[in-house]
Every structure is written in C-alpha cells, then in structure tokens.
Design brief:
The chain has about 110 residues and is mainly α. The chain has one domain. About 50% of the residues lie in helices and about 0% in strands. It contains three helices and no strands. The model has no long low-confidence stretch (mean pLDDT about 90).
Amino acid sequence: MARPSRYAPDTLPRPHHWMEDAACRGTDISVFFPVSRGGVSTEVETRYAKTFCNRCPVQPECLRHALTFREDYGVWGGLNEDERAELIRKARREAERRRRRQREKEKANAGAAA
C-alpha cells in the first residue's frame, strides 16, 4: 500500500482499507477474470470466483467499488459484469420512475393551485 503522502515517512501507520479484509486476499487475481480455457467454461470459473465472495466480510464494499468505478470486467462483490450492468439498469429505471412520478405530482399540484 502506498504512503499517505509522498512526503510522509514509511514509518507512519497506513489507513486501513477494506481490501485488507477480503476473503480473496492473496488469491491469484486471474480467478476473478474468467476466460474459457482448457475446456472449462467461463460460467464454471465465474461460479468458482463467487465462492470467495459468498464468504467475504467486505462483499458490499467490493460491489460498491465496482459500481462506483464502473469495473467493466470480472467478478466484484459477488456479481459478474452482466449482473452489475443489470443492477445499474434497474437503478436507472427506478430513478426515472421516481422522477416521472415527481413531475406528475408537481403538475397536479400546479393545476390545483391555478
């Protein structure tokens, strides 16, 4: 982990990061970026990667990171890229519904006030 500042001495304690508590810490990173090879499908490799996520104490933080930084590939927080994209689509649709309901409510209130 990097120093808090390039001017800070190496002896300063480093801030704790959620990744330090991840169940996958120390695991070969390629596990979380499945590619079909050797007759093993990406689906099987994805399920294997998710076994780490299922027991991970920082799964929500990992998923939040992937959604915040738009990680395009791999398994993050227990979801693959397609599942994360669907989660984002659902959130956008729900936000649009809320905006639409709010506009309709504002129109109705404006009509009643007139």
